[in-house]
Amino acid sequence: MEKRKYYQEAIETMPVEEIKKMQSEKLVRQVAHVYKNVPYYRDLMDKKGVKPEDIKGIEDLYKLPFIEKSDLRETYPYGMLAVPLADCVRIQSTSGTTGKRVIAYYTQHDIDLWEECCARAIVAVGADREDVVQVSYGYGLFTGGPGLNGGSHKVGALTLPMSSGNTERQLQFMLDMKATVLCCTPSYAAYLGESLKEQGYTPDQIPLKAGIFGAEPWTQEMRHNIEETLGIKAYDIYGLTEISGPGVSFECSAQGGMHINEDHFLAEIINPETGEPLPEGTKGELVFTCLDKEAFPLLRYRTRDICVLTREPCPCGRTHIRMAKPMGRSDDMMIIRGVNVFPSQIEAVLLAEGFSENYLIKLGRANNSDTFDVYVELRPEQFDDSVKNITAMEKSLANAMRNMIGIGPSVHLVPPKTIARSEGKAKRVIDERNLHD
Amino acid sequence: MAIRQLSVFVENKQGSLHNITDAIANAGINLRSMCVADTSNYGIVRIIADDPEGAKELLDKDGQAANVRLVNAFAVPDKPGGLASVLRLLEGNGVNIEYMYALITSESGKAYSVMRTGDTEETDRILVANGIELLDESKLH
Ligand SMILES: [Zn+2]
């Protein structure tokens, strides 16, 4: 039997005009539902002077107020709920690393559509009911495990509900049960790969053929390493608990961005400073509107992720819009000499060029212009006694950064362990520009 | 014969130098000579010691950037223009000098120079061929 290419072909390859028509119809219904059942959002709309009848289709989306993470904190725990609690069958929650936890509610309908999205992602990596899917994301409040678990069931694959941790057991089940698809965070995939390598396994002895990795940022470099040690093709998946969980978008075999499941989630790119919608192909903040979720239907939720959308036709045949891997968080965005710069871009260059990721960005003012200095720790093995080579490395790093972000910093290599490490999140940017104005 | 030199990449800040020398001395390794090259951001400390590999291992364990390499060391001819004549000789042979410093030994009456060039082996050959007296590492111990 030939392998299926899509989980839901009619939807995944629907002509763009039909997708837009479907989105418009769903949006009108959804706005009415939220206005009626979520007093908090009704107030936001009233304050903006927008009535449900002003929203006639997706072209009116811009009229709606945004929902920010702070709104979710303010309405904790029930304030965004749009159905009676008795209609809900599940909650999931964020880790709460950046403040209070967010609790998301699901009706059975919401769970089904979420799991369908994950099923599409699993089929997109070439898996079907003959496959064995090892789910090594955490199970529980975290959406990773439950989402991929449900998606794998829908595909009809044999699901190994491993959850995260206990590496010995992970490897034993992977090898004994001949898992063909691994779902986990990219860092855990890299760790499992290293452990197998240490135990003497070569890629051809590992049954896996594909991996679905997400829930944390990862680089092209990591992708290559994982693919090499495990002998698989590694695919990206994106999602957030506020919108549903993993599977909001997923990578297909063409690997040119992640297809957003547009029948459920309407995506926009806005200017993070002004909130103005930006045209397709422009870099900005990603905003999602849930089109047919019942319990927790966020409208125009600001993800803080910065990325680009494209509707260029994809060789895989799917027509849904694609998003690039997020290149940073709008909270971290710096504007240097008028150019948007993200610490993650600096990190990507350091990783690609084989440098340590202990770095510090210093911004200042001189001669009515921004100064932009990047300090990077030299790794011990990179030192070869030569000033000439240090200067050459500084220049090549500065060039690579200029190519990545459009403006070139002054790069300064410094000895190992000289950039301060603080508890928790490292301080990566010192901005002294306002001290000089 | 070229000799081994230890170099360490350090912060250009007070204290970083004697942190290194203390660590080496505490391990019972003798420092014969030392020179510091600094820029506005960092310094490179170059050390001739009687156990450079041992000193590097010590610094490696501490996570520091240390390197052991061969450099040329020779006795400066004891006559006017002695050093200049060696430099002219190397320049005439197309040798590119990256850095150079003086080395003090207890052996009386002789001044030594240490240099890193673009090609240590070739430099060694030129010096020997021209009868320049080289410093042997064994003389340091
Ligand atoms: Zn595609």
At CATH level 2, the architecture of the largest domain in chain A is 3-Layer(aba) Sandwich
> What is the tally of helical segments of chain A?
11
CATH class (first level) name of the largest domain in chain B: Alpha Beta
Q: Quaternary state, please?
A: heterodimer
- For the largest beta sheet of chain B, what order do the strands appear in spatially? 2-3-1-4-6-5
Strand content of chain A: 15-25%
Based on helices, strands and strand pairing, what is the structural class of chain B?
alpha+beta
Structural class of chain A: alpha/beta
What features would you highlight for this structure?
heterodimer; A: 437 residues; alpha/beta; Rossmann fold; GMP Synthetase, Chain A, domain 3; 2 domains; 9-stranded mixed sheet; 4-stranded antiparallel sheet; 11 helices; 31% helix; B: 141 residues; alpha+beta; VC0802-like; Alpha-Beta Plaits; 6-stranded antiparallel sheet; 4 helices; 30% helix; 34% strand; globular; binds zinc ion
Explain this structure.
Chain A has 2 domains: 9-331, 3-Layer(aba) Sandwich (Rossmann fold); 335-431, 2-Layer Sandwich (GMP Synthetase, Chain A, domain 3). Helix content of chain A is 31%, strand content 23%. Chain A is built from 11 helices and 21 strands. The longest helix of chain A is centred in the N-terminal third of the chain and has 22 residues, at 16-37. The mean pLDDT of chain A is 93. Chain B is an alpha+beta fold and 141 residues long. Chain B has 2 domains: 3-68, VC0802-like, CATH 3.30.2130.10; 71-140, Alpha-Beta Plaits (2-Layer Sandwich). Chain B is 30% helix and 34% strand. Chain B starts with a strand and ends in a 12-residue tail after the last helix. The chains are: A alpha/beta (437), B alpha+beta (141). At the A-B interface, helix 11 and strand 20 of A face strand 1, strand 3 and strand 4 of B. Bound molecules: zinc ion. Zinc ion is lined by residues 252, 254, 259, 314, 316, 318 of chain A. Zinc ion binds at residues 252, 254, 259, 314, 316, 318 of chain A.
